């Protein structure tokens, strides 16, 4: 009977998730946006990533700060943000944030680098009708 072991593992995962969510909340409160973005991406939370992007854009010189944070993300994190912003771009409430991130990626990534992103073709196809 492995029920008890599975329950302990599930409880440990849930506790770890709660700790990460608390850490994310603390990072946002402290305005440590790069770490907040990384953590939200690792938790696979598109809505939370969007909230971080919105918080950055509300700051003075928000576009500049957004660029600084997006540029410092790893390639896999940028790929995740790209997949998230495809969904954001379809909603008129979130399209401005999506466009700001797209602009940053296009300005700071070489076309050859962008072509190496996984899912770039479907992302571009999905972005074109709304952009």
TrEMBL record:
- U3 small nucleolar RNA-associated protein 13 C-terminal domain ranges (all copies): 21-131
GO terms for MF = U3 snoRNA binding
Presence of keyword Repeat: yes
Give one GO biological process term: endonucleolytic cleavage to generate mature 5'-end of SSU-rRNA from (SSU-rRNA, 5.8S rRNA, LSU-rRNA)
An annotated GO cellular component: 90S preribosome
A Pfam match is Utp13
Q: Where in the cell is it found?
A: Nucleus, Nucleolus
Q: Which InterPro entries match?
A: Utp13_C
- State whether keyword Endoplasmic reticulum applies: no
Locate the transmembrane regions by residue number. none
**Chief localization:** nucleus
- The lineage's top-level taxon is Eukaryota
Stated name of the protein: TBL3 protein
Q: Which organism is it from?
A: Trogon melanurus (Black-tailed trogon)
Q: Which gene encodes it?
A: Tbl3
């Amino acid at each position: 009977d492995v029920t008890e072991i599975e329950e302990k593992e599930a409880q440990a995962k849930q506790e770890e998730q709660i700790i990460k969510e608390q850490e994310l909340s603390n990072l946002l409160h402290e305005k440590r946006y790069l770490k907040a973005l990384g953590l939200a991406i690792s938790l696979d939370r598109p809505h939370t990533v969007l909230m971080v992007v919105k918080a950055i854009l509300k700051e003075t010189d928000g576009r500049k700060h957004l660029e600084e944070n997006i540029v410092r993300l790893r390639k896999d994190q940028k790929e995740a943000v790209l997949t998230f912003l495809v969904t954001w771009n379809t909603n008129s409430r979130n399209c401005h944030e999506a466009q700001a991130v797209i602009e940053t990626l296009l300005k700071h990534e070489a076309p050859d680098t962008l072509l190496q992103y996984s899912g770039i073709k479907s992302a571009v196809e999905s972005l074109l009708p709304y952009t």
